[in-house]
Design brief:
Layout lengths: L1 H30 L6 H6 L17 H21 L4 H29 L10 H33 L5 H29 L28 H8 L3 H23 L6 H29 L11
Helix pairs in contact: 1-5, 1-6, 1-7, 1-8, 3-4, 3-5, 3-6, 4-5, 5-6, 6-8, 8-9
Length: 299
């Protein structure tokens, strides 16, 4: 019983770390235009829309964060093998991984923007200097919390995977959670479509990103302010729940039926969430229906 209570406590702590990681990952991705809306940011100058949005998509979020978290976890694992304090080792490993992320972000922005020179898109040095450091700060939070979570799973729960491999697995899961959950809040409505809500995306509007903020031209910090309110917390809750339910079912039900108890509970959890998702989707469609132009009041 004591082992189960201890395991539940570790599960809750790991879920809390994952929630912070998910929120930081989505905000970092949105500031850098990495993920769902990036194709429209890249397309905008070709359609005549010059902008000041940071455009750093290196790869999809899952492989990118798989690389950075695995790198941070591998360096932390090496430092711990040198008998360095685990917390300090995780901090150093995450910091070095963030420098790699910064290099990738810089070269991606310069390379992508230079390729658009024929369409009149300039390289804004102030955007490069200010946005890169902001994305690095958010990436550090995401990497550090994920590596710390992986170390906690190994040291407290006895997970058999080495730290770098576990970092790769959960890094991919972190990027997938941010890409699937957080991007719609910022990408489909805030970032690039100056269309009425729910109107869809006509081909003629491709690249017509939102280029002006409440005061002056928009830059990627406006994306961060917006997504930190909605997309970031949504991604954090998503990733936190994934980690919590994954560890919870293992800690509580693995002793039953030679481990099959945890598998059965996992399938039940998936079915429950699928039913809830389907109910919400049907309710939303019946409540709001398809987009229609408002009827003008007759004189």
């Amino acid at each position: 019983m004591e082992e189960i209570v201890f395991g539940i406590g570790i599960t809750a702590l790991a879920g809390a770390l994952a929630t912070v990681a998910g929120a930081a990952e989505d905000t970092e991705s949105d500031i850098g235009s990495q993920g769902d809306p990036n194709s429209q940011v890249q397309l905008a100058p070709q359609m005549g829309y010059i902008h000041r949005i940071f455009n750093k998509a290196i790869a999809g979020e899952p492989p990118a964060y798989g690389l950075w978290v695995a790198l941070g976890a591998g360096l932390a694992w090496a430092f711990m093998a040198m008998h360095i304090n685990p917390i300090l080792a995780i901090v150093l490993g995450s910091a070095l991984a963030v420098f790699v992320q910064g290099v990738y972000a810089t070269t991606a922005y310069l390379g992508r923007t230079a390729s658009l020179a024929k369409f009149g898109q300039p390289v804004y040095i102030d955007i490069l200097k200010s946005m890169t450091t902001v994305t690095m700060a958010h990436a550090f939070v995401a990497i550090f919390t994920t590596v710390a979570m992986c170390h906690l799973i190994i040291s407290a729960l006895g997970h058999p995977f080495p730290l770098p491999l576990l970092g790769l697995v959960w890094g991919i899961a972190l990027g997938a959670a941010g890409s699937a959950t957080g991007n719609p809040f910022y990408g489909k409505e805030r970032q690039y479509q100056e269309q009425k809500f729910g109107a869809g995306v006509p081909i003629s509007a491709s690249g017509n990103i939102v280029r002006y903020a409440e005061a002056g031209q928009r830059n990627s910090l406006d994306n961060g302010f917006f997504s930190a309110k909605l997309g970031g917390p949504a991604s954090g809750i998503c990733f936190g729940l994934i980690v919590f339910f994954e560890l919870w079912r293992t800690v509580v039900f693995e002793p039953f039926a030679a481990g099959w108890g945890a598998v059965v509970v996992g399938i039940i959890v998936i079915l429950v969430f699928a039913i809830i998702d389907r109910y919400i989707e049907v309710w939303a469609r019946k409540t709001f229906g398809p987009y229609t132009a408002p009827e003008e009041a007759s004189s």
